[in-house]
Each structure stands twice: as structure tokens, then as C-alpha cells.
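Please fill in the sequence for the structure shown.

STRUCTURE ENCODING:
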């Protein structure tokens, strides 16, 4: 579904211009709104997100942020919301989850926060990030030795 028209509601613009390329208008407003929701200024007073939605590692479901009225006025496309969040230097995306980048989320986690999704499924670095699986295998190259069944042509003996 294509993004909806930009509303007449005042939407915060992104706080940083660290992107090396310009964004179209809807993405610019969407990035500003999403970064505002994850900002220290908002989280300091937003107990809805902190009490019921944020786990003990600061993760919040992207679908929840996408369901907020101001985001819905900009787009109903979940993939667009996830893509825009992944562009932010202020957010960290892990699958269907997002949190403040770095360790800025720590002061906002409440003592009774539910156990993190990362603890249940493994460390963030070992898991799927932004919809891509980490299937890379370590490959070791040894100079001067040929492996059995080498791809190199046989050498002719003089």
C-alpha cells in the first residue's frame, strides 16, 4: 500500500541529518516521528511505552510504534516503518523490535520490565537483524597449501 499524504499535524523532523542522501517527504516526517518516540525527551514521560511495552533490554515492538495515530497518518506500511527505523542513527532494529541506539535505553527500563526477547532467543549479535540471517561461515585461507580436492588444476611434472 502506498504511503498516505503528509498530514497537516505538526510532526517532528529528524533530529540529526546523518544520512548521506535526501529522503522523500513522507520518509522524512516518519523518521522524525519515530525518532521522537524513541527519544530521551519522550521516554522520560511516556510511561505507556516503558511500563507495558519495553522489555528489560529496552526493546519495543515496531508494530506498536506503527500503530500510533501519528505514524498511521503518514503510512500504514509496516515495511516502510521498519526500513525508516533502520536508517536512523538513533535507533537499533532487531527483527520486529527496535530500541534506542547504544545504551541510551538503560535509564528508561523499569525494574519490573518483562524479560527481553533477546535473552529468550540468544544474543542480538547472533540473531537475525533487519530481516537478514547471519549465515556467514568462517573461511580460512592458507597460503602455500592445497586442500584435498582442490579447485586448482593439477601441476604437470617436468
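FILLED IN BY: designer on duty
SEQUENCE:
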Amino acid at each position: 500500500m502506498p504511503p498516505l499524504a503528509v498530514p497537516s499535524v505538526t510532526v517532528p523532523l529528524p533530529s540529526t541529518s546523518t544520512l548521506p542522501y535526501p529522503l522523500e517527504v513522507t520518509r522524512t516526517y516518519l523518521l522524525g516521528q519515530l525518532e521522537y518516540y524513541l527519544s530521551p525527551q519522550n521516554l522520560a514521560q511516556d510511561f505507556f511505552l516503558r511500563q507495558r511495552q519495553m522489555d528489560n533490554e529496552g526493546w519495543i515492538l515496531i508494530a506498536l510504534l506503527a500503530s500510533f495515530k501519528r505514524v498511521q497518518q503518514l503510512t500504514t506500511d509496516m515495511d516502510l516503518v521498519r526500513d525508516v527505523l533502520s536508517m536512523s542513527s538513533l535507533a537499533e532494529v532487531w527483527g520486529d523490535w527496535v530500541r534506542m541506539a547504544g545504551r541510551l535505553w538503560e535509564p528508561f527500563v523499569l525494574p519490573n520490565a518483562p524479560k527481553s526477547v533477546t535473552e529468550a532467543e540468544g544474543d542480538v549479535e547472533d540473531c537475525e537483524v533487519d530481516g537478514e540471517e547471519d549465515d556467514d561461515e568462517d573461511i580460512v585461507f592458507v597460503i602455500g597449501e592445497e586442500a584435498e580436492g582442490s579447485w586448482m588444476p593439477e601441476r604437470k611434472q617436468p
